[in-house]
Design a protein that fits this description.
Bound molecules: iron/sulfur cluster
Strand order of the largest sheet of chain A: 1-10-7-4-2-3
Distance between the termini of chain B: 50 Å
Strand content of chain A: 5-15%
Oligomer: heterotrimer
Helix content of chain A: 40-55%
Distance between the termini of chain A: 63 Å
Shape of chain B: elongated
Chains: A alpha/beta (about 475), B alpha/beta (about 230), C alpha/beta (about 260)
CATH class of the largest domain in chain A: Alpha Beta
Largest sheet of chain A: 6 strands, parallel
Strand order of the largest sheet of chain B: 1-12-7-4-2-3
CATH topology of the largest domain in chain A: Rossmann fold
Strand content of chain B: 15-25%
Number of strands of chain A: 12
Mean pLDDT of chain A: 92
CATH architecture of the largest domain in chain A: 3-Layer(aba) Sandwich
């Protein structure tokens, strides 16, 4: 069952019917928001930090070219290499080139959404190089052959029993009768399995939570410590990052770190925050000998300067997913592409085109919860609406829904007719349902009546009754007449 | 090879004149990079040194680290031996070269030093600084301090001088710039790796249950030393 | 509001299409509350819809036309009041966004936006009325509609007013701030997702074990009421204006006509 953006409605139905998934989603939507709230309550300066984090990223976007040049210069001064890549294909090829030059057999990977975006695992595997995910969640879904369903908790949809199944299926070198009841046993098993992989890998591939222009560093944030073993042990460290990950200084990075973990998991600080700058220095006893940065555009420069620019402030904290009632109802896979939830619904059409992703910005009530928790102040509902506008204006053919809407707008612009037509409809519906108070089925409105009754209108419209004179005040009408 | 670089930069430059570009008042990039101004720094790391130590300890314990305090360097090996014995942990340690000056012979522990390896059970490292705000220790890589020691063993013990406990991350950057900045300060002060460590390794990836010690250490024990290591 | 409030401000009532067409009683309750608070109220007959359905579907040109019509109809009043956070928010927050390239209309939109309020906010924060003291022996829970809550910061005001209603006991739902899954056209375009969200809302409401559900937006209330009846619950669903105006004699939303008077 492959879920694509184009089959969104079906994906959603499948997800809603999936009981295991629903249990995990319940857990998530309870746990994350509560933890976030506690962390935010413990930080009186949180709102100020949020505003500054937003300003920092706006400043970066306004000066992105200059900061990128500065960043590149610093990386090179520290002995690293920067590879600029226009798209996913270029990035994949560049990574392969580096891996081949290093004669790599296995590549350890710490969780990277950009890695998902360029589908690097499949590509490496096809080229005879084994990619090994080391974040526990990513490892689990790699064993299950699935994409992540959440940007920081990729295996959020998987139950403990399913983890056990996957481990038993793959870790065949271990005794079949071992006890994996306890989650801690699963943890120990994963630790043991991955330990050797870390030590054997030729190349370590990480993402970057930020790139610091001042120093040429990439910032890695994890709770497990897998990113640290990924860059520190192999001979080659490759960082894959998109161009908007830049922040100016270490101080600016610190500000963003303060909102990142609190918004993400509700921790004050993630366990491991690492600043890597270039390869091993002459005097260093350990560390990678080569340091490469893949600097990826892949559609970002198209968003820059557009009405969607603000999504480029996103730090992938996942707060918008964790608080989204739609995400909670359908989980991440239903969105059909790499990035789920509100940030995904804004970003995906920008990266793969609105034609294929048109359901994503539409499947939202614009309830605004995401914007209220986004640490970067991204107006997600506004951006979702902007996609709808773009789509509406670009698309000549109209769906039945759009035609109905058009008709409604046409009518709304003709108040006299509007009141006449609607008066008639309302009188009919009122007569049909007034006694019972509700109507169970209305033609052309089955989207509504398939799930809920339609509350019967009272019969006469307010405007009709009011102007018939119960209250006798027609100054509203007079006001209009005076104006004319 | 530089085609993509030029294309990307050119595209960015064209887009910067568009109607949606958000300008703001953070000044020129030269100023920002050179002066690296501080943004809002939360007040909770503020205080007299002794208050900061108390805060550091409390925050570190909140994230499952353990913290003890000794008055001088001489006490460090004994304290470590005691911690290992109390917790039924193996008494074989590997310490960072930076701690070679300590007199390890005062205990019965098996002691060696070097870089982190798969077989290590307990590693002892030097923390460059502590951050009271979140109970975070900061280490960086150099000849004396291999990075791998912080991550490979299941037990990580960090030695932290009381005077190196600061309020905020910003304080650490200031200290680092002062300690390591050379003539060409803007480029060279940053070590290859700076690690901020806040508690032991953890994951919530199995059914959203918190479990400690997935890839990094399961235990983080911090020994605060009142007398500054020379 | 820094300007002085006129002693008897002339309020244009934007009744909203849903109230107008399906539940006039909310309109009359609004009228009564405004008059009680000392306002002179007019109901322009040229009003239709605020344009939100078109706006949220990306049809900006129709939205602009409708907005212009609303501006023309209402701009001469001291205040414009709507018994809905979503329509109120549309006029006070989103109209501005429509006229970025048109100075004249932008100015007019801004003028209108500055004096447009959702009913409860208007009574509580602008007029600061102390004339609300009805009677309603019941237990109720309150659903915070999204635009009201997050665009207009309506949270404490309705609860404060409800404290003045004799005999009414408010019980908070755990998820009172979670979206009910209405979302205008969303609920018909994505009925399965909407149903899932709605059921959570309804479950939360049911667990409060109250007799009544109150809210400030008719769209959400119709959504909730329709699901409650579909699930066989007879819980009374009402717009808060009806309770505050002491006009709860008629049936609740989606409820059958009362047999005894
Ligand atoms: S849009 Fe905001 S809340 Fe969502 S992931 Fe990005 S930064 Fe976090």
């Amino acid at each position: 069952m492959e879920m694509k953006t184009t089959t969104f409605k079906e994906n959603a139905r499948t997800a809603i019917a999936d009981e295991t998934l629903q249990i995990e989603l319940d857990r998530l939507s309870f746990g994350f928001p509560e933890k976030r709230k506690k962390a935010v309550d413990r930080m009186p300066e949180f709102e100020q930090l949020r505003e500054q984090a937003r300003d920092i990223k706006n400043h970066v976007l306004a000066n992105l070219d200059l900061y990128l040049e500065n960043y590149e210069d610093r990386v090179e001064k520290h002995g690293g290499q920067v590879h600029w890549c226009r798209d996913a294909k270029a990035a994949r090829e560049q990574i392969l080139k580096i891996c081949k030059a290093a004669d790599a057999k296995t590549v350890t990977k710490s969780k990277s959404m950009i890695g998902e975006e360029i589908f690097i695992n499949d590509f490496l595997a096809k080229n005879g190089i084994e990619p090994i995910e080391t974040d526990l969640g990513e490892y689990i879904i790699q064993l299950r052959g699935e994409p992540p369903s959440h940007i920081i908790a990729p295996a959020i949809h998987v139950s403990k029993a399913q983890v056990e199944d996957a481990f038993r299926r793959v870790h065949t070198d271990l005794p079949a009768d071992r006890n994996l009841e306890d989650p801690a046993a699963l943890l120990q098993e994963a630790r043991g399995q991955l330990r050797n992989k870390f030590l054997q890998a030729d190349v370590g591939l990480t993402g970057a939570n930020m790139l610091v222009a001042e120093t040429g560093s990439n910032v890695l944030v994890t709770n497990e410590g897998n990113a640290d073993l990924t860059y520190a042990l192999p001979r080659v460290h490759i960082v894959i990052a998109s161009i908007e990950k830049i922040v100016p200084t270490l101080e600016d990075a610190s500000t963003i770190l303060r909102v990142l973990a609190r918004s993400a998991t509700g921790q004050d600080m993630s366990v491991y925050t690492t600043f890597c700058t270039g390869p091993k220095r002459f005097e260093d006893p350990d560390g990678p000998e080569e340091y490469h940065v893949i600097l990826l555009d892949n559609g970002r420069t198209d968003l820059l300067g557009s009405e969607f620019e603000e999504i480029l402030r996103c730090i992938r904290c996942s707060a918008c997913l964790n608080h989204c009632p739609i995400y909670k109802a359908i989980g991440g896979h239903a969105y059909g592409w790499v990035y789920p939830g509100p940030m995904g619904a804004v970003l995906t059409p920008g990266l793969i085109g609105m034609e294929d992703a048109s359901d994503l910005p539409n499947a939202s009530t614009l309830c605004g919860k995401c914007e209220s928790v986004c640490p970067m102040g991204i107006p997600l509902p506004k951006l979702l609406r902007s996609w709808r506008t773009r789509h509406f204006e670009a698309k000549p053919t109209r769906s039945l829904g759009q035609i109905t809407l058009k008709f409604w707008a046409w009518l709304a612009k003709r108040p006299k007719l509007y009141h006449k037509v609607n008066g008639l409809i309302i009188a009919t519906l009122g007569a049909l349902g007034r006694r019972k108070g509700r109507i169970k089925w209305i033609p052309f409105a089955s989207g509504w009546t398939s799930k809920r009754d339609f509350p019967a209108p009272m019969g006469n419209t307010f405007i009709q009754q009011y102007h018939k004179g119960a209250r006798g005040d027609t100054s509203g009408r007079r006001l209009r007449e005076v104006k004319k | 090879m530089n085609d993509s670089r030029d294309e990307i930069l050119a595209k960015i430059r064209t887009s910067r004149s568009g109607p949606y570009v958000v300008r703001n008042e953070l000044g020129t990039i030269e100023d920002r990079l050179k002066n690296h101004p501080r943004n809002v720094v939360p007040a909770r790391g503020d205080g007299l040194p002794e208050e900061q130590i108390t805060k550091f300890k409390a925050e570190a314990e909140l994230v499952n680290a353990t913290v003890t305090r000794v008055s001088s360097n001489i006490d460090i090996p004994k304290e470590i031996a005691k911690y290992l014995a109390d917790n039924n942990l193996p008494s074989r340690i590997k310490h960072a070269p930076s701690l070679e000056h300590l007199d390890w012979s005062t205990t019965l522990m098996e002691v060696c030093h070097g870089i982190g390896e798969a077989t290590d059970e307990v590693c002892v490292t030097t923390a460059y600084a502590g951050v009271a705000e979140t109970g975070t220790i900061v280490t960086y890589s150099d000849q004396q301090n291999p990075t791998t020691l912080n991550f490979l063993p299941p037990v990580h013990i960090a030695v932290l001088n009381a005077v190196d406990i600061t309020g905020s991350y910003e304080d650490v950057w200031t200290k680092l710039r002062a300690d390591l900045g050379s003539k060409d300060q803007s480029v060279n002060f940053i070590p290859r790796t700076v690690n901020m460590i806040t508690g032991p390794s953890r994951t919530g990836d199995i059914q959203q249950t918190l479990l400690l010690g997935i890839h990094g250490p399961q235990r983080l024990h911090i020994v605060i030393v009142d007398e500054k290591t020379p | 509001m820094s300007e002085a409030i006129p002693t008897s401000p002339h309020v244009g009532l934007f009744v909203t299409c849903l109230v107008d067409l399906t539940r006039p009683s909310v309109g009359f309750a609004t009228l009564k509350l405004l008059e009680l608070a000392g306002c002179q109220v007019s109901v322009p007959v040229m009003q239709t819809c605020c344009g939100q359905p078109a706006y949220n579907s990306g049809d900006r040109s129709d939205t602009r036309d409708i907005a212009k019509q609303v501006i023309e109809t209402f701009e001469e009043f001291d205040y414009i009041v709507a018994p809905s956070g979503s329509c109120g928010g549309m006029i006070s927050h989103h109209y501005l966004d429509l006229f970025k390239d048109d100075d004249t209309w932008e100015k007019r939109a801004k003028n209108l936006a500055n004096k447009t309020f959702e009913l409860i906010v208007f009574l509580s924060d602008v007029i600061k009325t102390n004339k609300i003291n009805g009677q309603c022996k019941t237990t109720a829970t309150y659903h915070d509609s999204c635009s009201g809550l997050r665009e207009l910061s309506i949270k404490d005001q309705p609860r404060e007013f409800l404290k003045n209603i004799n005999g009414l006991k408010l019980v908070e739902g755990k998820k009172s701030e979670v979206c009910c899954g209405f979302g205008g056209l969303f609920c018909v375009k994505y009925p399965d997702i909407s149903e899932k969200m709605l059921d959570e809302k309804v479950d939360d409401i049911l667990q409060t074990e109250t007799e009544m559900v109150l809210g400030g937006d008719l769209g959400c209330l119709m959504n909730i009421a329709g699901r409650l009846t579909r699930r066989g619950s007879e819980k009374e669903v009402r717009h808060i204006a009806e309770v505050l105006a002491d006009m709860t004699h008629g049936p609740g939303i989606a409820a059958p006509e009362k047999t005894e008077a």
